[in-house]
Each structure stands twice: as structure tokens, then as C-alpha cells.
Amino acid sequence: MSIQYPFYELIIVNDGSSDDSMSQLINVFNLIEIPFKKNTTGISCEEIKTIYKSSIPKYVNLTVVDKLNGGRSDAINCGIIFAKSDLVLCTDADCIIEQDALLKMVRPYIQATEREVIASGGIIGLANDSVIKNGILKEVKMPKKMLPRIQIVEYIRAFLLGRMAWGHINGLMLVSGAFGLYSRHRLLEVGGLDKDTIGEDLELCIRLRKHMEDLKEPYKGLFIFLKFYVGQRLLLILKFTFHSEIVGRVAYGKQCINIESYFSIKNMVIWGSSFFRIGFSLN
Description:
By secondary structure, the chain is α+β, with helices and mostly antiparallel strands. It contains eight helices and ten strands. The protein is globular.
């Protein structure tokens, strides 16, 4: 709620939680029920129970949606449905956003002239042992334990430098689901997030690129850092299996001929060699 931006709306989706989340939100922000219109966006989500707005003037930009459980993708689709702005920022509940982050994320959309920006991502780092007060990161500290320290080094080596380089040739394959900004009308055109897939952020970005290639419109995606999850290489192979029609196809331009093919082959080789090393060590 302390983000520095002229206008924004914060939509909190309670995805059928069984704890006291809703009662706490109602009490803290003095939420009151409001009527809502029927969904006509073309994106579906689980049944909406109630929509709330805060009666406190300084929280006028806060909307809380209480719905039946449908999973993360379903909850984000719900937020997209009720969003009123042209851009939609998707983030996780455990993320701490710097106060000027939204200003930096929106800038590429404003400055874009020749190619449309379809997605924008930001730096994601570890907050282990850092100083956090009132939801604001006050001081960044190196984790005390060795494993998080190794993870930070690996993030910088494999993703920060690598992803910046891929961004220069418009070769970034995804914007992390933990912190990604999208054009709402493009999300509506592709039907929002897929509720029946694992790694919905990766699948969404592949589908957005495919959609823009089908439209024959110039585009680009901006990203600085990719948050790494265990199993990401296998996941990438699976996503290209679902969208195999774009790999190596002239109709989808150089991006899909070169970059998608490169990522598919590279990650299959790395994934396969990892299994070979594991099998070799066991023997």
C-alpha cells in the first residue's frame, strides 16, 4: 500500500482460504460488500462469493475478492477480470515490492514506439536475514547459512547476467510469475492463465509470443532477472511440447526458429546429462 505511483488499484483475491484471512482483512480495512456485474471478459474463474471495498478514504484503491478455491492461476484470472487498468501486475503474497518498482516496470510501456511491450519483469532476490519493517525492505544482508548464499551466487551467475543478455536480442522466454507486468487486453485475448498446467507463467509467455506472431505485430518482452525453481528445465521442455507447433516454424519468425529451438535442445541436453551423471555416480 506504500507504492509510489500516481494511480493504481490493489486487488487481493482470497482463494477460498480456510483460515481467518478474510475476517482480518474486513476488520483492519473496514471492508464493506459492494455489488458486482456479471463477468463478460471471456476469462473464467471459480464462483465469486463477495467483493469488498474499504470504507477508509486512504484505502480507496483497495478491492478484496472472496471466491471459491481454484488455485493460483484461477485467482490471478479473477484479478484480471476485475482489474480496470490497462496494465496488470501479477505478484505473490510473499513478495516485498520496493516503493518505486511500479514506476520502473511501467516505463518500458510508455517509451515503446516501434514494438509493443507484451511483458515486463523485475529483479527478484532473496530476503533471507534482510531487515524488513512494515512491509518495506530497509536493509539487504547476506544470508548467514551457506545454502542461501550459494543460491544468491547462482542467481547472479546463471540468471541476472544471462537474462539481461537474452533481453538484448528479444530472446527471453518468460517473465517470472512472482513479479510480472502485462497488458490486460493481451491477457484477455489469450484467455488469461492456464489453470490446468504447471508453471503457468512460462506457458503464458510462450502463448503470448505465439499470439503476437499470429497477429504479425512487432513485440518485445523485457526482463532483468528470472527466479529459478527446481525442475524448470524439465518444465521448459514440457511447455514446448504443448506448443510444439511454434518450434522451428518459419511462420513464427526468427524468434521461434532460433530461440525456442535453442532452449529446447539446450535444456534437453542439460536435463539428460544430469540424469547421466546421477546414474553414473550411483553405479
